[in-house]
Amino acid sequence: MKTVGAVMATYNGEKFLSEQLDSIIHQTKRLQQIVIVDDKSRDRTREIIRKYLDRFPELIDFKENSENLGAKKTFEKGLMLCDTDYIALCDQDDVWRPEKIEKMVKCLLENETAKLCFHDLEIINQDGLLRAKSYWAKAPENEPLPVSGSAARDRIANFSNPVPGCTMVFDSSLKEHILPMPSSAVGHDWWISAVAFYFAEPVFIAEPLGQYRFHPNQTAGIGTTLIKKKNERKILPTHSRIVREVKRIVFSKRSKKEKEMALKVGRYAVSAELLKIIEKYRETFLRSDRDDEYRITADRMRKNLIVYGE
């Protein structure tokens, strides 16, 4: 039987944390591990977690950062501690549908090449009132995302709307490529989805299996990709650093034969997580002799999206 775990990063989340934990614990398909890493909360978050730890000591693995590391590094730490076959990411203030894990695991078992599946979301406010029935169809400040056919593949290939971390369940085999995460200004959810679309064939479940909560005290917005810069002149150097680091990480994990071949032809494989950057700054980062490489990689990503039940 495949084991399932959840990874949660917490920070000053006392208001909604209990509701989220209850929704994770009381799934129709039980989890085997819940890893919670707190990022130096200053409210009652850690107290709440310890109460759940007392009730579910065999289920919850709780760690505390000695200093504030931020969401990405905290999630990275949680992933290192999670040792289940499948891993779900979760925010501290959302709500899971009771059947979420059951349906996500079924999807992954029926699609062995997927390695990652993700689902739609309902949008609720701080009072739990419904604000949108579908994140993909109508999310505040986000363009609609087609969820079937070539239009969806084109959208994902462009990375114009990355997969929100709170909708993901992925195979632990992807950790080899996910870790370590780039230290550059790129979100953990963007990085994980990019790795998955490069190395596997992710599946989208067009059903809201969770509720995403918009509220004033959020530490990060949904589908966070790149940290916003006030000065446009700072953006180009930031992207340049991301490109260099991502190439280094992806290249370092390739086989000796692949490295030798890459060096021989004088090029690195363009990783999927670079596509949006390359699209925006194509003249800067992509010489004319790499046009074919870009086209091949983009085509591969378009083919790699599967819509569950399509």
Automatic annotation (TrEMBL):
Superkingdom of origin organism: Bacteria
Family matches, as Pfam families: Glycos_transf_2 (PF00535)
Residue ranges occupied by any Glycosyltransferase 2-like domain in the UniProt entry: 7-114
InterPro entries from the UniProt entry: Glyco_trans_2-like, Glycosyltransf_2, Nucleotide-diphossugar_trans
Protein name: Glycosyltransferase family 2 protein
Provenance organism: Candidatus Desulfacyla euxinica
